[in-house]
Each structure stands twice: as C-alpha cells, then as structure tokens.
Write a structure and sequence with these properties.
The protein is α/β, with parallel strands linked by helices and 489 residues long. It is 39% helix and 21% strand. It contains 16 helices and 23 strands. The structure holds nicotinamide-adenine-dinucleotide.
Length: 489
C-alpha cells in the first residue's frame, strides 16, 4: 500500500522522519490506508512555506474576485468527486454513506457561499472630523493560519476553515485528526488541481502533541483555528499566548433539548432521537440532555425507547444502516466508562448500555443506543460530554426550572426547545445561554448562519459573515489631503 503524502509548498512529500501511520476502518479494524506521520520538523517546513507565500504578497493582494474564482472551482471539484469523497469519509469514520453524501453537499455549499460573499464587503468610508481628508476602513488577511480539525466531521470542519481563510487572502497550514486524515488529503489534491499557488495551502499529517503543538507555539503562525475538545483547546490557548495569536476555538457541547407538554409529540420524539444517534452521538451539537416536562415524561420515554430500539446499526455502506460504529477502541472504552459512571451515580438505564452481541459487529467499535432516565443535574453523566450514543433524561415542572436545567452546564454550544406556544418559545430562547438555539427543530445549520459557542464551548464563530471576520484584520486609514504644519511654540 503506497503511503499517502503531505502537501507542502505545492509538492507531495514524505515525512522527514520517514515514519508512517496506519489508518483503520472503525467498522472492522482493517487497515484502509497508510499515511505519512509528520512531526515538528514537517510542521516547521509547512509554516515556512506559508510564511514565505504570505510575505511575498501576491496572494494577499490578488483581487478578491480572482480568489473567489479559485474557491468556486474547489466547490465544483468537490461536486465532481462527491461520491469518492463520501465513500472515503464513510470508510474512515464509519458514519453512514447517506450522511457522508449530505456532508459533501454541505461542504461544496460552504465553498460556494464564501466565494459569493467575500467581495460584498470591501470596507467603508467613514466620516472624518478633519476637512479635506478621507477616512476609510479596509480589510486585510491576518497572515499565516494554523488550522486543526477533529475526527467526527473531518472534511466538514476542514471546509469551515479552508474556504474563508483562502478567499480572504491568508496562507495556511492544516492538520487534520491523525485518526481520520483521508478526505482532507483528497481535498488538498483538489486545491492543487484548482490552481491555488504553491505555499498558500499546506497539509501536515501527524499527532496533536507534535504537529498541533508546533502550530500553536510557532511564532510565524498568526492565527489558530481549532475544533476539538475543551482540554486541547485550553492547551492551545496557552501556547498561542506566546506571540498573542488570534484564536478561534470551536470546542465541545452538552446540549439541552427541552420538550414542553404542548409540543407536537411524535415530531418531538423523532427529533429527540435524531438529535443524538445519527453519527452514534459523535456530534458536538448532539442533544444529549433531554429535558422533558414531567406530565409527559413516561409517555415520551416509552415512545423514544421504542423508536431507539429499532435503530438499525451496521456497516455505513449498507444504505439501510442508520447508525455506524464509534471511531476507535479508545473512544469505545471512554463511552463504556461514561455509561458505567451513570449507572454508579444512580441514573436508571432503560435501553442499551452495552456493546451489541451480534457476531458480525465484534470487529467493529459498536455501542448500542443508550438512554438513562432519573437523571439529575449534579451527575457527571449529565455534565460531561460523553460523545457517544447516550441520552440522559431529566424532568421539569415549570418554565423557569426548564431554563435553569438547560443552562446548568459549563458548555453553551447549542440547544432546542419544543413547544407550540410561540411566546413561551421566545421567552426560553432569550434566556438560553447557547450559540445556537432551535425552536421545534434540532441540529440544523447552514453556511450563512454563524456557528460557535457561549461559555466554554469556544471563542469566535465559524460560518456566515462572522466566519469571514475571523480571517480578516480591520485597518483604519486616515488620509490628510491638505496637511498643515503644527505650530508647537
Ligand atoms: P481532540 O481535542 O482530541 O483533537 C482535535 C484535534 O486537536 C486533533 O487534530 C488532534 O490531533 C489535535 N490535538 C490534540 N492535542 C493537541 C495539542 N496539544 N496541540 C494542538 N493540537 C492538538 O478532539 P477530538 O477527539 O478529535 O474531537 C472531539 C471533540 O471535538 C469533541 O469535544 C467535540 O465536541 C469537538 N467538536 C466541536 C465542534 C464544534 O463545532 N464546536 C465540532 C466538532 C467537534
């Protein structure tokens, strides 16, 4: 099997150490690829290439419409190679191929969106207090960007970073998760094919502790955009302080899904299930904290258990599969210990709580959809992001209590409210401390709406116009057309 290479300064290169890493299919643990295993020295080569490409100035000063053309071309190539990319994502992550195809559509839309909006805000003229002068605000790229992505949505998360960084004239070094690099390698082939100049976009493969740490520490990097867990985010913040890098952090979530008794019952049940189980719960915005009005609690849990028990787990390539495996043996062990902690804390396990026993699933990292009732807000299982197919159910009797439970978290990424009382929905939304709140929906996002977290769920926003702002510096230019000498004495 040929070792897949990294993309540095417009060339496909091996790791300087000569090392490589096997990539595993989480469905059956077969080796699906071998990729270069870069380290600090490879990261430095890529940062140097990005620095030189930025400092040369041609990319940053290229008309934005020309950069938009390149970004639009990348979208076209993604659409052309959609099936190849979707298959690769399913092979690498275990998610269903139906989900992977949806991801690829979303990814192409992100590139198209940023190609469209980048030239719509060229700055502004502002009133000057001095006669015969011009005062204007212009946008410039930040510089060299380090971009670090997680394993759950490898190419989707990469697209949220690549498209706005490129269209605004930055140069970049991307490091995907070492577990799931395959679609990111493929998109760099498309970036190359689209004609993005050498050195502008660089790809280094390898571990967070080596490549990721170098990107966060290196003083030639001006901005870090990171998506991943809180603990890694804290380390990156500390490292980034060395040269006061700009920071964008998309961290975890422990998202409340609040269901009032007056909600449309069947839709709320279906969506409560979909809010968690479609990528085996490995979703930063999964609605893992279900908060149900006490008068419908039993009926709601019974209906949910019935639906959840029928979820078809299996091979992501089987179009009937609704839920694939978890990402790795290590992550499976984490989810198992998280469920054990729920049991020992006194939460009541009503379905799941174990691996499936079917012989055909024994080589994969499968875990059954799991529901705990009788949960209270002080339990670790309610507070910690398990990142697996697990729902905890809490109950409330008043609107105030529902809001209190929803907000009782260090996280603030997303949440949902289900009710047919629109005034009540708006009152709740106004008090819910999260970056996204859905009313009578869950987990919906699109390129032109900003995405990001309150509280410890992160800093900054991706997607939308704010996602573009992360990659732009704002400069005020004051031009005096009739300068006068200053009389000091
Ligand atoms: P992780 O924090 O373990 O790793 C994320 C990335 O950081 C990987 O590329 C990893 O190699 C790298 N990394 C690890 N240590 C590093 C270090 N010291 N310095 C620099 N980089 C380092 O997260 P994960 O397990 O890959 O992903 C799951 C997490 O991502 C969950 O917490 C999830 O909620 C979060 N996530 C958040 C969003 C969002 O939009 N807010 C989206 C997807 C995932």
């Amino acid at each position: 099997m040929e070792t897949k290479r990294m993309y540095i300064n417009g060339s496909w290169v091996k790791a300087t150490s000569g090392k490589s890493r096997d990539i595993i299919n989480p469905f059956n643990q077969e080796v699906i690829a071998t990729v270069a295993e870069g380290d600090e020295s490879d990261a430095i080569l890529a940062i140097d290439a990005a620095r030189t490409a930025f400092d040369r100035g041609e990319w940053a000063s290229m008309p934005v419409t020309d950069r938009s053309t390149l970004v639009r071309r990348i979208a076209e190539l993604i659409e052309r190679d959609k099936e190849v990319l979707a298959n690769l994502e399913t092979l690498d992550t275990g998610k269903t191929v139906i989900e992977s195809r949806d991801d690829m559509d979303d990814i192409a839309s992100v590139f198209r969106y940023y190609a469209e909006v980048a030239d719509k805000d060229g700055g502004e003229l502002i009133d000057s207090p001095i006669p015969n002068s011009i005062s204007k605000v212009v946008h410039e790229p930040v510089g060299v960007c380090g971009q670090i992505t997680p394993w759950n949505y490898p190419l989707l998360q990469a697209s949220w970073k690549l498209a706005p960084a490129l269209v605004t004239g930055n140069t970049l070094v991307m490091k995907p998760s070492e577990i799931t690099p395959l679609t990111t390698i493929k998109i760099f082939e498309l970036i190359d094919e689209a004609g993005v100049p050498a050195g502008v976009a660089n790809l280094v493969l390898g571990a967070g502790s080596t490549v990721g740490a170098e990107l966060s520490n290196n003083e030639d990097v001006d901005l870090i955009s990171f998506t991943g867990g809180i603990e890694t985010g804290k380390k990156i913040m500390q490292a980034a302080s060395r040269n006061v890098k700009k920071l964008a952090l998309e961290l975890g979530g422990k998202n409340p899904n609040v269901v009032f008794a007056d909600a449309t019952f069947d839709t709320a049940v279906d969506q409560a299930m979909n809010a968690v189980f479609f990528h085996a719960g490995q979703i930063c915005s999964a609605g893992t904290r279900l908060i149900v009005e006490d008068t419908i609690h039993h009926k709601f849990v019974d209906a949910l258990v019935e639906r959840v028990s029928n979820i078809k787990i299996g091979n992501g390539f089987d179009e009937n599969t609704q839920m694939g495996p978890l990402i790795s043996a290590e992550h499976l062990a984490k989810v198992e210990s998280y469920v054990e902690s729920g049991k020992s804390e006194g939460a009541k396990l009503v379905v799941g709580g174990r691996r499936p026993t079917n012989p055909e699933f024994q080589n994969g990292f499968f875990y059954l959809p799991t529901i705990f009732t009788d949960c209270t807000t002080d339990m670790d299982i309610v507070q910690e992001e398990g990142f697996g197919p697990v729902i905890t159910v809490e109950t409330f009797s008043t609107e105030e209590e529902a809001i209190m439970l929803a907000n009782d978290s260090i996280y603030g990424l997303a949440g949902g409210v289900w009710t047919n009382d629109l005034a009540k929905a708006e009152r709740c939304v106004a008090k819910m401390r999260m970056g996204t709140v859905w009313i009578n929906d869950f987990n919906l996002y699109f390129p032109h709406a900003p995405w990001g977290g309150f509280k410890q769920s992160g800093i900054g926003r991706e997607l939308g116009k704010l996602g573009l702002e992360e990659y732009r510096e704002t400069k005020h230019v004051f031009h005096n057309l009739k300068p006068k000498p200053i009389n000091w004495f």
